[in-house]
Structures are given as C-alpha cells and as structure tokens.
Amino acid sequence: MIEAFSLKGKIAIVTGAIGLIGKQHCLALNNAGARVVAADLDERQCIEFAEHHLCDAMGHYINVCKKESIKELLENVLDRFGKVDVLVNNAAVNDMFEDPKAASAQSRFENYPLELWQRSVDVNLTGVFLCSQVIGTQMLKQKSGSIINISSTYGISAPDQNLYKDSEGFQSFYKPPAYPVTKAGVIMLGKYLAAYWGKYGIRVNTLSPGGVKNGQTDFFIENYSRKTPMGRMAEPGDYQGALVFLASDASAYMTGANLVVDGGWTCW
Fold first, then answer.
1. Measured between alpha carbons, how far is 162 from 223 in angstroms, rounded to an integer?
2. Please, what are the domains in the chain?
3. H or E segment to which residue 12 belongs
C-alpha cells in the first residue's frame, strides 16, 4: 500500500510553482520521488528553486494564457524527460488592491473593474483550459496521466464578507467576484475532462484548499480561525499529502472528484 503513494519515475509539471503553495506542491511531488518541472512567469526564480531545493528537477518559464508558451514548455520537458505523468494546474491570480485606503470602495461588486475580472478569467480558468489541452493531449498519446486542478473553498462556498471587517466593524475589503467564480469553473472543468478522458487512462481531479496563513492582518486571521472547526488557518505544507495522493496510484480509481482540505471550513 505504501508503494502506491510513490511517484518514483514520474515526471510532474507544476504551474505557478514559485507561489507560496506552488513551492510546497513541487517539494511534495519531489519528495515522493517525482522529477518536477517548476514552471512560472519568472524563469530565473524557477531555475534557482529547482537547482537549490529540488532533486533532478527543471525550472522553466510559462505563461499559462499563451498556448505557444505551454507548447514550448512541453517540448522541452519531452526533450529532457521523454514524457509527462502529472500536471498540477496551480497558476492563479487573486485580486490585491495597491491602496489599502481605497480597497474598500474598489473591491465592492458595484465598482469592480472589468479588467480585473477579465484577468482572473484569463489566468485562473483559461490558463487551466490551455494547459490541460496541450499537456493532456500528450497524456492522451501515452494513454496515462494525472491532472490535478487547484481550486479553493471559495469555488464551493460564497465568500463571507464579514471576515474582512476589522475589530471596529469597518469593512476594509470585499472579496471580489472573479476569484470565486473562476475557481468554481475550475471544478467543473475537472469533472468535464474526467468524463471526457476517463476511458483513455487520464485521471482529472481537483484539490480545493482552505485559506493559508500568509501575513494577513490579525483580525482576518482571528475571524477566519473562528469560522473554521479546527480553529486555525492552514500552514503552507498542509496540502502536501493530499496532492501526492491525487498524483499517485493510491488514487488510481479516483477521477472527477473534488478533494476538499480546509480544516472543516465547508462543513457548516
């Protein structure tokens, strides 16, 4: 049974690899035996991360919104490793507003800019579509592969805007609509592809993490933790086991599923 979790001999591509959770995804897969391709917009950081923190790995530039960029990545992966077994669609954008004083007004749905909506659709949803299309086509030739889409609890449940109220009741920020809507789309795209490719040996599942502690304000961490049955936000490494499970043969009869790892956030 333990051997079923091994990724020895597997080649795994992780998009958005330089982000907080992206690095943890790379480390988890590499520690389980996979040779990892860490792909993100900053190629220098990808290469340095692969060289200093991973074993027999590769850092590479990718723009998930550009099909030619994904094709170039795949060609270089095949030249070096000869195949690809795992794709983790992790690249995403989450709206941030530069001026904290203006964030309350700018983040309201009534004022939310179309360009921010379109940017999230392009990266969070179209990027997953394109990476799955290009790399999944290679998996189709191989008649095997595991695609893991990274969604969010906000792809399942609407944001609780009260989380963003400070101790004095001031609404410092509203969670905008683009992130939840695109993350919900990622879940359904996973189901679609699972049904479409299932008979060809390609599994497609979704991992939906909860919020990760990463320098948020004290009042937000307190609000979030109070709403979570386990009483805390996630640490960056809390999703490693779930990711390895979905990538490995331990989940060989699992496809079209959404694995929720959120400290119980969505259970009430």
1. 8
2. 2-267 (3.40.50.720)
3. strand 11-15
Rounded to an integer, what distance in angstroms lies between the CA atom of residue 73 and that of residue 163?
Answer: 39
pLDDT, tens digit only, all 268 positions of the chain: 889 999 999 999 999 999 999 999 999 999 999 999 999 999 999 999 999 999 999 999 999 999 999 999 999 999 999 999 999 999 999 987 767 778 889 999 999 999 999 999 999 999 999 999 999 999 999 999 999 999 999 999 999 999 999 889 999 899 999 999 999 999 999 999 999 999 999 999 999 999 999 999 999 999 999 999 999 999 999 999 999 999 999 999 999 999 999 999 999 8
Q: Is the pTM here over 0.90, yes or no? A: yes
Give phi and psi for 9, each to the nearest 5.
85, -5
CA distance 90 to 222: 27
Geometric angle at alpha carbon 179, from 174 and 180, rounded to 5°: 85
Active site residues: 151, 179, 183
Pick from 150, 123, 140, 112: nearest CA to 239: 150
Q: What is the Cβ-side half-sphere exposure of residue 93, based on CA atoms within 13 angstroms?
A: 22
Reported for 162-168, long-range contacts at CB under 8 A and 24+ positions apart, including other chains, are 162/223, 163/220, 163/223, 163/224, 163/227, 164/220, 164/223, 165/219, 165/223, 166/217, 166/219, 167/219
